[in-house]
Amino acid sequence: MSKPVLNKLSQEVVNQIAAGEVVERPASVVKELLDNAIDAKADRIEIKVKEGGLELIEISDNGVGIPKRNLPEIFLPHTTSKINRIEDLNTLLSMGFRGEALSTITSVSKVHVISKYEDEGIGNIIMFNEKGQSDVRSAAKEQGTTVRVENLFYNIPARRKYLKSAPTEYRKIYELLNRYFVVYPNISFKLEKDGKEVLSLDAISKHKAGEICKERVAEIYGDDELVEIKYDGNGIRINGYSGHPSSHKSKNTKQLVFVNGRPVMDRGIMRAVYEGYSRYLPFGEKVNFYINIDINPELVDVNVHPRKEEIRFENPFRIYSAIEEAVKHALNKELSFQIDSTSSPIAQRRESFNSSSESKEYTTREIKFDKQYSSIKDSLLFSKEALTVSEEGDAIRNIFQIFDKYIVIEFVDERLWVIDQHAAAERINFEKIQKREERPLDIQSLLVPTSLIFSKEERLFLEEFKSFFQDIGIEYDVKEYGIDILSLPSVLSTANTEALFKEIFEISDNLDTLKKEFNKKKEDILATVACHTSIRSGQKLNYEEMRNLFEELSSCENPYSCPHGRPAIWKLTREKIDTNFERTY
């Protein structure tokens, strides 16, 4: 048996392994390059992306630039201008500092860097490809730096294979950029996608880096019903905005947290925000919030995650208590001010909301897909028997509607069914959509497209999953403001399509989760579509409509409940009714 041989890995292989931690996907490259541009004191940054960043990522800034003598060195492993000693990590405030980031990018892509340092008269260019590093040569350039990254993971096919589609990777980049847009209102940004400018944001000069401003939040997320949050004490400064309690919703909220201007994920901070809302929100409801925390860098460790997305506080309780106090103070101030300003229509509406919050208990919620109901099991037991049609057929003696909600059917064999007309219709339409390949849906082209307005993030979602919606008969064009619906399945002809999409967006806690779990959530989306195509509660039905509903439900593969899990039928017999009235004759 041969002995194992130890091999010392080449620096190229080491860099490619390190790339797995630092450069996970195109958005990771964008993040590293953006951090460097911000550290270079740029106030104008342009981002170009092609094919979701797989073909091209180019970031240009007007920062201080890179001296000619440093250009060959900045892409060497563990090279950084940010730290000299391990102790420097304790006081680091810059965005980018991991010395291997640039070297790993050059190890998995083809890179061009052109830069003009502020104290030099001309720019310089250097290139990195499969042949290695080129010489530095002069090039015309205004002050600043442009980094062009092409063919990401071209030399590691296995890594490239596991990346998502170009629209998905672009969405990841766009979601990342939104965080930078919010926390750096002092910087103007331009974004170009596949040769077309899709966004241009002017710098808001009255604000500094890390100062979250209402104007930029509204420009990015369309969110302007916000409460300002401020705190300054115990070495902690907090600034930002959170949603007014009247804007609460159950899902799909924006929760952006920054520490010293760095986008981070921290569940403790999110919990602290909601602790501050505890008196003002119905249980389980959420609001948008955008918060930056400035803290002495010695009290926080940002190097606990390879991509600097997680942090560790020296004294987390102090941070979380400050956030909770800041939120409570902001809400108390905002709401007490509105009570004093009852002449304002907005104040009157909000005051009405607050008073209704105190007078009502929010114990009932709309039924969601992931909840279980104790009545379902019982429903299935009797419904399976109830829907077994005898060879002679089910002879109906009488059929009528009650409360404009339920269909009551009396059979000649002394059985009685009560059918929830909406639940039954949902089940019927759900299975029709499921079986669209066996029996194509009837599609209607609209003479005049229906225009709906959506946020940028919602438009990205609709663009990414356009083929899925087209497959179920909902065809649309994505526009700068939203979508134009071109055709619909005939069963949706009278539906409120805006409400339909809103409900689809709220299937998961937020759009990010819905996108990640899209394949798992497809049935939930079909159930939502079926719901909007169905007979509603409160809708009057004639005999033929009721009879047709019963017959179609009986032919369903799973007629026992609606797609959300609610029972569709309640079965009674004359014997059970007699027993309830203590009748023996």
Describe this entry's structure for a reader:
The protein has 18 helices and 23 strands. The protein has 585 residues and is an alpha+beta fold. The chain has 3 domains: 191 residues, Heat Shock Protein 90, CATH 3.30.565.10; 146 residues, 2-Layer Sandwich (Ribosomal Protein S5, domain 2); 220 residues, MutL, C-terminal domain, dimerisation subdomain (formyl-coa transferase, domain 3). The termini are far apart. About 13% of the residues have low confidence.
Sum this structure up briefly.
This protein has 585 residues and is α+β, with helices and mostly antiparallel strands. It has 3 domains: 11-201, Histidine kinase-like ATPase, C-terminal domain (Heat Shock Protein 90, 2-Layer Sandwich); 214-359, 2-Layer Sandwich (Ribosomal Protein S5, domain 2), CATH 3.30.230.10; 366-585, formyl-coa transferase, domain 3 (2-Layer Sandwich). Strands 1, 2, 3, 4, 5, 6, 7, 8 and 9 form a 9-stranded mixed β-sheet that branches. The protein has a 5-stranded mixed β-sheet with strand order 10-11-14-12-13.
**Major sheet characteristics:** 9 strands, mixed
Mean pLDDT: 81
Stated plainly, the CATH topology of the largest domain is called: formyl-coa transferase, domain 3
Distance between the termini: 91 Å
Count every beta strand, where a strand is a DSSP E run of 2 or more residues: 23
- Give the overall shape: elongated
Low-confidence stretches: 81-99, 337-356, 358-393
Name of the top-level CATH class of the largest domain: Alpha Beta
Supply the number of structural domains. Answer: 3
**Strand share of the residues?**
15-25%
Radius of gyration, in Å, reads 30 Å
Give the % helix. Answer: 25-40%
CATH architecture label of the largest domain: 2-Layer Sandwich
Helical run tally: 18
